[in-house]
UniProtKB/TrEMBL annotation:
A matching Pfam family: FAD_binding_9
Presence of the UniProt keyword Transport in the record: no
Record-linked PANTHER family: FERRIC REDUCTASE, NADPH-DEPENDENT (PTHR30157), NADPH-DEPENDENT FERRIC-CHELATE REDUCTASE (PTHR30157:SF0)
Name of the protein in question: Sugar isomerase domain-containing protein
């Protein structure tokens, strides 16, 4: 009788940074190496890992053991809890014991700033977002906001239109006209856009009313995703109409997909940004 050995759903690798490559002003590729990274499995383009970082002023990382390590980690006091972030693996080279991860830099802002739940109401943050994007004059902006009234959203719309970028707004027309703008100018995202795509979501976003008041089941994320696909379809149609080949990804799970996508991305080095 053949015994099947259990496969652990996860394992810990101890790594160090071998190289850092700046791909753009806000995009960095970090290459990690470690004594057993030659055993790191390459599971394709959607492979996610958790990166545990040292606590401030300390070297190395200590994580709880066992299948419930994550629950144990969450229960630790904050001053003892190593920061953990989730990333998508960019490349795996077992023969070199190397793994690449692409990081998006957020302007070196402290965690407290980024964690502020009211950050989107601050118009000044739009200037930092625009600078980090480092757009070219020909770039088109697509800004999505259910309400279209918060300070950062409206300020970003004002910035891009003042600089001559075409602006497409995705918003709920029903919602935005029923609320007071929070931008000092009193303007809304929709008023600044060249094209407005109505996501069709109701005031408050949620669809199903509750007997005791309130509602559940927000719909804007679903309808906005549909609008994004419809926009993609229209752009591709126009490429074909002009006799050009659209630069589209293939699924990484079909033969030749990885090779096609790598060749395609090489045309846009420094322009692609991921937030994984």
């Amino acid at each position: 009788m053949t015994e099947t050995l259990p496969i652990a759903p996860w394992r810990v690798f101890t790594v160090e940074v071998r190289a850092v490559h700046r791909l753009s002003p806000s995009f960095v590729r970090v290459t990690f190496t470690g004594p057993d990274l030659d055993r790191f499995a390459d599971n394709g383009w959607d492979q996610r890992i958790k990166l545990a970082l040292p606590l401030p002023g300390r070297r190395g990382v200590r994580l709880p053991d066992g299948a419930d390590w994550y629950a144990q980690w969450r229960a630790l006091p904050e001053e003892q809890r190593n920061p953990i972030r989730t990333y998508t693996v960019r490349a795996v080279r077992p023969h070199l014991a190397e793994v690449d991860i692409d990081l998006v830099l957020h302007g070196d802002a402290p965690r407290a700033v980024l964690a502020d739940p009211k950050l989107e109401r601050d118009p000044s943050i739009a200037h930092r977002i625009y600078a980090l994007a480092a757009p070219e004059p020909r770039d088109v902006f697509v800004v999505a906001s259910q309400s279209g009234i918060n300070g950062s959203v409206v300020e970003l719309a004002r910035l891009v239109t003042d600089r001559g970028h075409p602006l497409i707004a995705v918003t709920s027309v029903e919602h935005t006209v029923r609320v007071v703008p929070r931008h000092p100018s009193g303007r809304r995202l929709a008023a600044l856009a060249d094209v407005v795509l109505d996501n069709g979501a109701p005031y408050g976003d949620a669809l199903l009313p509750l007997d005791g008041g309130g509602a559940v089941c927000a719909v804007s994320s679903v309808t906005t995703a549909l609008l994004a696909q419809l926009l993609t379809a229209e752009v591709v149609r126009r490429f074909h109409q002009a006799g050009e080949v659209p630069p589209i990804y293939l699924s990484a799970n079909v033969p030749g997909g990885d090779e096609h996508n790598l060749a395609l991305e090489s045309r846009y080095v420094g322009r692609l940004r991921r937030t994984a």
